[in-house]
Structure formats: C-alpha cells, structure tokens
C-alpha cells in the first residue's frame, strides 16, 4: 500500500488529485491546469467571435465567468480531458450507448474517472487488483474483482458520471510491484471528514475524561481530609478515655486509702466518744517523754537499759510485744488517725444539720 501514490484532498483541487492519482505521480499542478483552462476559454471566445464581436451572444459570453475553472480550484471535464491528451489518453462515457454495445467487462479495463457535481476521483487497476483512489479517503481502498461492477453500478445510482480511460498509462512503481504480489487490507480507509470528526470526538471524550479525573482527584483529597479528621477525633476520644480511666484509678486508690485509714482507726483504742485536740495530743506526748526519762533515772547503776525496738509491719522484722507501751511512731500514727476521724465526724455532723 505504501508504494501506491495517493494525494489527499486540499481545498477544491479534486481534479488535480484525480489526475495525479490516475497517473501515479505529481504530473499536474493547479498552475498547469489553470493554463489549460485559460486556453479552452480563449478557444471558446474565438468561436463566439466568429458570429460577430458586436453580437448580443458574444457580449453575454464575455460577461459570464469561465466554465472551465473557478477560484476555488474546480476544473471542468474539458480541462481533465485535455490534460490526459498530453499522455495519449482519452475519456469515454461509461454508460454511453456506444460503450455499452461493446459489452466490455469492467475488470478488463485499466481505470475509471468518476465525477459527481464538482468532485472527481480515480478508480484504477494496479498490478492485478483494483483500488479506489478517492482523495477524500485517508488512503487507497482495495476493491475486489467481484465487487467492482457492483461498486460502479452503485456510483451511477448515486448520480455519478463515470468515464473509462482509454490508452496506455505511464509506468509506475506500484503497478510493477503489485504485478508480483497481492495485498490484503485489514481495515478500510475512512473519509477524511469522518476521521476528523472521530478525532474531534476522541478529543472531546478525552477532555471529559480529564474533567472527571480532576473531579475525582478533588473528591479524593476531600475524602483524605475527612479520613484524617476521623482519625484525629478517634485519637482524641482515646485520650479522653485514658484520662477518664486514670481519674477512675485515682478515685479507687483514694477510696482504698480511706478504707485502710478506717481499718487502722478501728484497731486503735480510743477514749469513749472523746476526741483529742492537737493541744491535748502535744501535752500527752510531753507527759510520755517525762515518764520515760524518770524510768531511766530509776534503773540501778551499771545496768544498761535495752533500747526499745520499734514495731514493724508484716515485713518479718522484729517488733515489740503487743502488751508493751506504744512507741512514738505509734503515737503519731494514732494521733493522725484520730485527727482524720475527727474531721470526718465533723463533716457528718454538719451534713445532718
């Protein structure tokens, strides 16, 4: 396929593309075709002048635009026919009675030129296969031998004029190559306008997809922010729960300590319903110390008194006998306990009042 010459549509130069695709090369330019058109216009003017340059028909002819070309790049069948005469080629109308009487099978021809309104394109045989070389297609279109007659008949039904190209076409590389090999076409070419529309639609779809992705990215950011917030709230709740647990633990310790204080106070003998003040406790401690000093002075000389050992807790250390007098530490503990008990009783009394 790459060896086949195929000019694609530019402006309205379909006549130029048709000729070059037929001849398989850049044989004609718009300037050369315009020169042929001007030559045809001059020949027509000379024929009209034969009837008199002062005649109404001649003046009307001069005022009319050229029928062989226009500013868009269109060229008439006369221009195409004259351009092919340079190469010894001529055009015969395919559906003319003269040609139909010949009963020639289309596959035995070499090429066709098709025209509808202002569009021209070529159908040519290269090697042993037929190709639609329409400049409006994105590339050459392979046509099977069995489909060729149906393809031409369909064009005629659509209003196309079909011309058979008679004569020997110039040699070309594609024709020589395809004489030796046959090609297969997996995908048919599309119309250029259709391809452009498809590309435009793809660009629109791509733009829409990018918008959706951008929107999703934004929502993802919001989702991530929301997740961070949820994690922060969860951590805050955990910290609050830990603080609550610590507070509960502190309250439990305090209650335990209060219970221990109550048990100690219950073990220590108290005066019946009488609560000592701090001044009374101080006086009792002084009396106790004076009594101890008097006992030491009464001991016989040379007999050393054994220092009293402080009672210990249940740690296994030696302690004083339960019947002995209370030590200073026991006195202090008892005093503190009695003070605490006094405060609690005062609170209870105030509450009853």
What does this structure look like?
About 11% of the residues have low confidence. It is built from 10 helices and 6 strands. With 353 residues, it is α+β, with helices and mostly antiparallel strands. β4 and β5 form a beta hairpin.
Strand-helix topology:
Elements: H1 14-23, H2 30-49, H3 56-63, H4 77-85, E1 90-93, H5 97-102, E2 111-116, E3 119-126, E4 129-132, E5 141-143, H6 145-157, E6 161-166, H7 173-178, H8 192-267, H9 278-298, H10 328-352
Antiparallel strand pairs: 1-6, 2-3, 2-6, 3-4, 4-5
Helix pairs in contact: 2-4, 8-10
- Report the average pLDDT across residues: 78
For the terminal residues, how far apart are their CA atoms?
116 Å
Outline the low-pLDDT stretches: 260-274, 302-325
Strand and helix order: HHHHEHEEEEHEHHHH
Instruction: Supply the number of helical segments.
Output: 10
Q: What form results from the Cα inertia axes?
A: rod-shaped
Based on DSSP secondary structure assignment, what is the total number of beta strands? Answer: 6
The biggest beta sheet reads: 6 strands, antiparallel
Strand content: 5-15%
Percentage of residues assigned to helices = 40-55%
The largest sheet has its strands arranged as: 1-6-2-3-4-5
Evaluate the radius of gyration: 61 Å
Structural class computed from helices and strand pairing: alpha+beta
């Amino acid at each position: 396929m790459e060896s086949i010459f195929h000019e694609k549509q530019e402006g309205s130069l379909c006549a130029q593309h048709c000729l070059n695709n037929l001849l398989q090369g850049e044989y004609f330019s718009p300037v050369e075709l315009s020169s042929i058109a001007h030559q045809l216009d001059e020949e027509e003017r000379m024929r009209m002048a034969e009837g008199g340059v002062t005649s109404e028909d001649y003046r009307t002819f001069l005022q009319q635009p050229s029928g062989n070309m226009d500013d868009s790049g269109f060229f008439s069948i006369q221009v195409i026919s004259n351009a092919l005469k340079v190469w010894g080629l001529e055009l015969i109308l395919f559906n003319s009675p003269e040609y139909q009487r010949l009963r020639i099978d289309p596959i035995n021809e070499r090429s066709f030129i098709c025209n509808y309104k202002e569009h021209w394109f070529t159908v040519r045989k290269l090697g042993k296969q037929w190709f639609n070389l329409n400049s409006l297609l994105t590339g050459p279109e392979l046509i099977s031998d069995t489909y060729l007659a149906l393809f031409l008949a369909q064009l005629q039904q659509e209003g196309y004029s079909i011309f058979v190209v008679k004569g020997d076409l110039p040699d070309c590389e594609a024709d020589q190559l395809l004489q030796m090999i046959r090609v297969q076409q997996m995908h048919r070419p599309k119309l250029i306008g259709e391809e452009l529309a498809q590309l435009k639609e793809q660009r629109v779809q791509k733009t829409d997809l990018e918008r959706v992705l951008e929107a999703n990215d934004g929502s993802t950011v919001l989702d991530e922010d929301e997740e961070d917030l949820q994690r922060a709230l969860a951590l805050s709740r955990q910290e609050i729960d830990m603080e609550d647990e610590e507070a509960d633990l502190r309250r439990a310790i305090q209650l335990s300590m209060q219970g221990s204080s109550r048990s100690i106070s219950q073990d220590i003998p108290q005066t019946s319903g009488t609560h000592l003040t701090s001044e009374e406790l101080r006086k009792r401690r002084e009396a106790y110390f004076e009594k101890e000093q008097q006992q030491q002075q009464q001991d016989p000389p040379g007999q050393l008194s054994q220092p009293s050992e402080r009672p210990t807790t249940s740690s296994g250390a030696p302690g004083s006998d339960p019947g002995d007098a209370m030590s200073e530490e026991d006195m202090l503990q008892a005093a503190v306990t009695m003070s605490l008990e006094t405060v609690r009783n005062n609170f209870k009394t105030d509450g009853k009042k």
